[in-house]
Amino acid sequence: MKRQVTIKDIARKLGVSISTVSRALKDHPDISVKTREAVKELASILGYKPNMIALNLKHSRTNTIGVLVPEVEHYFFSSVLNGVEEVAYKNDFSVMVFQSNESYMREVLITQNFLTNRVDGVLASFSKNTHDFTHFKKIIENEIPMVFFDRERGELHADSVIVDDYSGAYQAVSHLISKGCKRIAFYSAPRHLVLGKNRLEGYKAALEDNGITYSPDMVYSCDTFDEAEKISRSILKKHDRPDAIFAVNDLTAIGAMKVAKKLGLRVPDDIRLVGFENSRSSWICEPELTTVDQFGFELGKEATGLLLSRIKLNTFDYEVERRMMKTQIVVRGTT
Amino acid sequence: MKRQVTIKDIARKLGVSISTVSRALKDHPDISVKTREAVKELASILGYKPNMIALNLKHSRTNTIGVLVPEVEHYFFSSVLNGVEEVAYKNDFSVMVFQSNESYMREVLITQNFLTNRVDGVLASFSKNTHDFTHFKKIIENEIPMVFFDRERGELHADSVIVDDYSGAYQAVSHLISKGCKRIAFYSAPRHLVLGKNRLEGYKAALEDNGITYSPDMVYSCDTFDEAEKISRSILKKHDRPDAIFAVNDLTAIGAMKVAKKLGLRVPDDIRLVGFENSRSSWICEPELTTVDQFGFELGKEATGLLLSRIKLNTFDYEVERRMMKTQIVVRGTT
DNA sequence: ACGGCCCATCTAACCGGTTACCGAAATTTA
DNA sequence: TAAATTTCGGTAACCGGTTAGATGGGCCGT
């Protein structure tokens, strides 16, 4: 492959030393205007581009942040990514995105990659199957700033930016109750995810604040379209079927809706549904889905801003922060 | 921040030279077993990780490929990305993903970033608003291998891996004709994209092969949900409205379907629809959308494999290749 | 006892920049 | 006019590895 133009080439052609070229290019006052102009002109003629790798080695920074995300295919994560890019980009940082595909093994390899590639900081949303966090601990041992987003893990020295799951769930369930629903099922994420716990708390609180007793029988572990299709079939056939379903994400709600319609239930008359995400899908399905907007784009911007501020701190000795993003219920046809 | 362990640290503690450590770590035969074992043991105790940046500088490679994509939010592109990661990953390459958001300006900046970050190769799908290709020429001038995917540009020294748009469109339109459709509208991508041209040709050919005369009045420039909602309103109200719509992607087809249903048309009895993508959305809408599967995952794998083979060639003197990915029509409820 | 040879390791240059420090010429000052 | 001070640019170390070639001690044969 073609060798790139270096300052050495410029120095040789101009008969000056490489340090002069280096200084001239960055407007160092030690260099005379004449020399500086000559260097700059030749540099642009030759198409000189500084070698980032050499700079990175010198400064031991890469100006790169690593992002670990379960799947970019999910609307929420892709919108987070947009926010991340926006901020990173404005601050001259590059972004390396890796998907765990909800696989723990893959996640471990990705974090190792972060270490060997010497990213300056890490944004991470770990997989649903991650119960062991030693791979993240290694990143922290290396004093690489890390911000968890959406899914958090309190005990590590890492900031987190999360969705206000509690209040999102509370809003959603309160809304359903205001529509007259009494038997509200909750299709929930696995319990070990903090978001699962918090949404459950919000669900419970909304029920209890409205005089409805909480029953664990109404909570199902189900957070994908396919699972929703499967379990809804039996749930919705029962004589004491729920009159509303609050689902942990839009696709799950839509899966349930599909089954409901197939069973001849009318939406929203016989059964009301609320999702969580405000994804594209939520206005593609019919009727359009009432859902809780998670503001992924803003979350991405927030998390990246926080991470960059940590990187700029240049010390690992800071108080860990936990930021919560507001949610907003979007009322549509399914309620 | 914490300084990473280097071979220098190991050398000092062991009282040997850094070259000995370097060689010991890579099982060089010059080093005695005793020394080698000692070095390796200390390395693992100290948690030594080779500094990729230094290696990159030495070898002037980064083991990184840059990916330029319009928007990861689109199902097709996110599935391509999955394929890219899969292959890159197996070959110990990292992937840097950048979204142009269909902005030409952004795209130019991203390609500059590829140059300064010294990626070893580029996978690119340019934006709809790109008419000037000098930014790609710069990459090629630097002899960085490039593979265009999905959207190609013939005149540059770059391979391309594209969807067989012609046959995909031909299949889709033939299918509609076999269902008895006579007036088939085509919601098309901008003409300057090769994929737009090829699908139009496939559309024309399918019509003509079945004795239907092609009429330019049936071709509309429309490739988003919003545009489809807007233009379909008037198109579907006309007394000589089409009896089928073939759309350039799923969301456009779904936008049209939504309007059709609002106008009281029955799908598929009054109007049939075919999309292009086989996205998640295509089985969320109702009825489920007949669509042409583009096999994004396979396309991503193919393009990355080709790119990596070019990188490994280690010369820029190769014949440019153009690979076409087969498509497959998926028949569902809208036809 | 000495030249030759092998083995294990070290020295130093290199990748492409940055930058502290040094030195010679030009200019100012006494 | 000699000394002091700028001005301008060069030298060399450094970032963390790799690697060709040098070095030096031990063992061999004659």
Task: Briefly characterize the structure.
2 copies of one chain form a homodimer. The first copy, chain A, has 335 residues and is an alpha/beta fold.
Topology diagram in text:
2 copies of one chain form a homodimer.
Chain A: H1 7-14, H2 18-25, H3 33-46, H4 52-59, E1 64-69, H5 75-90, E2 94-99, H6 104-116, E3 121-124, H7 134-141, E4 146-149, E5 159-163, H8 165-178, E6 184-188, H9 194-209, E7 219-221, H10 225-237, E8 244-247, H11 250-262, E9 272-277, E10 290-293, H12 296-313, E11 322-325, E12 328-330
Parallel strand pairs in A: 1-2, 1-3, 3-4, 4-5, 5-11, 6-7, 6-8, 8-9, 9-10
Antiparallel strand pairs in A: 10-12
Helix pairs in contact in A: 1-2, 1-3, 2-3, 5-12, 8-9, 10-11
The first copy, chain A, binds a DNA duplex (30 and 30 nucleotides) through residues 4, 6-8, 16-20, 22-23, 26, 28, 30-32, 35, 50-51, 53-60.
Overall spatial form of chain A: elongated
Q: Helix fraction of chain A?
A: 40-55%
Question: What is the CA–CA distance across the termini of chain A?
Answer: 62 Å
Q: What is the mean predicted local confidence, pLDDT of chain A?
A: 94
Subunit organisation of the chains: homodimer
- Our Rg estimate of chain A from Cα atoms comes to 26 Å
SSE string of chain A, helices as H and strands as E: HHHHEHEHEHEEHEHEHEHEEHEE
DSSP strand (E) fraction of chain A?
15-25%
The side-by-side strand order for the widest beta sheet of chain A comes to: 2-1-3-4-5-11
User: How many structural domains of chain A?
Assistant: 3
The count of helical stretches of chain A stands at 12
CATH class of the largest domain in chain A: Alpha Beta
CATH superfamily descriptor of the largest domain in chain A:
Response regulator
CATH architecture of the largest domain in chain A: 3-Layer(aba) Sandwich
By secondary-structure content and strand pairing, the structural class of chain A works out as: alpha/beta
CATH topology of the largest domain in chain A: Rossmann fold
Spans of chain A of 5+ residues with little confidence (pLDDT < 50)?
A: none
Largest sheet of chain A: 6 strands, parallel
Total count of strands of chain A: 12
Biggest interface between protein chains, with counts per chain?
A-B, 49 and 49 residues
